[in-house]
Amino acid sequence: MAAITWTREIAEAYDATSAEMFTDAVLGPTLDCLESLAAGGAALEFAVGTGRVALPLAARGVPVQGIELSEAMLEQLRRKAGGEALPVTLGDMAHTRVDGRFRLVYLVYNTLMNLTTQAEQVAVFANAAAHLEPGGAFLLEVIVPGIGRVAPGELGRVFTLEADHIGTETFDDPLGQISWSHHWMRVDGRLVQHAAPYRYVWPSELDLMAQLAGLRLRARWSDWAGSPFTAASTNQLVIYERPA
């Protein structure tokens, strides 16, 4: 399977290096949206990770299950309050099935791009559709490809420049839509370096993947607050639905 699996070193540093994503400013609108889409039903998170979203969503009373590929990430989740009680299946989000049907399946924080072939990304949509009850929603959060923001002749761009985190993105295979994300992070006084490939995907391509899975577009926003999606948007929040 063409997928990124987080190592123990990255899993142990994940929460610290993604601290902004755990703030109320980010999580509040995220949880509000997901709780609304679940509409009293059950939710399934693909690539649940360390439980950044699943645990507080479950604390709101939404029945949540998860699928996670990395044992090291799952170990971090289990150490948190409520982590032992959250049902999580170890496996990949493109093919792993769990029992039951869900009102909501969601995949956030650009994680679709961790699958580095189009075929595997298409399989994620099919797997989401197979888990949805009629009328249920598949929510996807993913960036708009940044290749258009790179000047001609340049190999990549710096997307984060902070005292404890430098991040660069290089576009290594435009035909395969593969970029590499490179990170240098200071965590607890030590340097953590990480690099991995990602397959970026265009909005129209996402819509076609959804159609192949029998899903239809309900909404596309530029953020969790429901701001309109425009040609200048750098992020997209897309909701597809399984017809009733």
Describe the 3D structure:
It is a single chain. Helix 1 (8-17) packs across helix 4. The radius of gyration is 17 Å and the shape is globular. The protein has 244 residues and is α/β, with parallel strands linked by helices. It has helices at residues 8-17, 24-38, 54-59, 71-78, 118-131, 203-212, and strands spanning 43-46, 64-68, 88-90, 102-107, 132-143, 156-162, 165-173, 178-187, 190-199, 216-221, 235-241. A hairpin with a 2-residue loop joins strand 6 (156-162) and strand 7 (165-173). It has six helices and eleven strands. The strands form two sheets. It has a seven-stranded mixed sheet, sandwiched between helices. A four-stranded antiparallel sheet has the order 6-7-8-9.
